[in-house]
Amino acid sequence: MQAPQTHNLPGENPFPIPRTLAECAAEPDNDKWRGWITRLPAFVAELTERWSLTLGAPYEPGGMCSWVAPARDNSGNELVLKMGIRHYEAEHEIDGLRFWDGDGAVRLHNSYTTDDTCVLLLERCVPGNSLKQGLPEEAQDEVIAGLLRRLHREPPPGHPFRPLQSMCDEWGAEFAKNAERYPDKVDAGLVRAGLEIFRSYAGTANRYVLLCTDLHGENVLAAQREPWLVIDPKPYVGDPAYDAVQHMLNCPERLEAAPHALCQRMADLMGLEKERVQTWLFARCVQESFGGSQWSQSLASVATRIAP
What we know:
This protein is α+β, with helices and mostly antiparallel strands. The protein is built from 12 helices and 9 strands.
């Protein structure tokens, strides 16, 4: 991703909001996002002055929950300013990046939090193109697995991170509501098995490490300090096998064609048991089967084929 022409913000032009964030805020029931965007220009101006930054226009199309722009400090360091709406899954992004300290992930230079915002001043990845754009999927497997093996370290006593089970509880509750709302959409036996995994499987691992939980090819960027660096982690502590799943869900053709083989490949690359990788993949496929898309129907088929 190439950085736009830099300029000081806020300037004479209207404050720029990336397309995805603007579309999210435009949804009828999203008053929280609209209020946050209203306050954003003043907050960006405050931090620009506090950290002596020159900013560029935000990256497009951007994400649903953050405003992200290239920055440069007074020493000429190329950075990124990320203003994120605080939300449950990403609550410990700052803590995770601080724990990893640039070892496989982008380096955190500074941070600041308020009741509704997490601010991160980050190392800028140059050239910044994503792994998804840069390599074919089988090569992505190797990069993702290699990064996860480095990132999967046990945090010290007293760490702030939540257990993976807490996220599974949240998702399991939503999963159960969908199953009640659409009782004929997914096979009842698959639903029961998927819910049981969400409710109990996280506690059966033999290792508990810091996870990214949302690592896929779009969240790995090409850099100069290392060939590839992880961005946008959503840290939890738990079973390392869980972290293989999001990448597999982002490889739809291979997942649909040969789910057992893909599970085996990721397990081998990460040094994990295939059974655990496949069990987590099964639960996520059942969870995602309640959508109305063709892909949701495909995931229901995958779940049937890999059911434990």
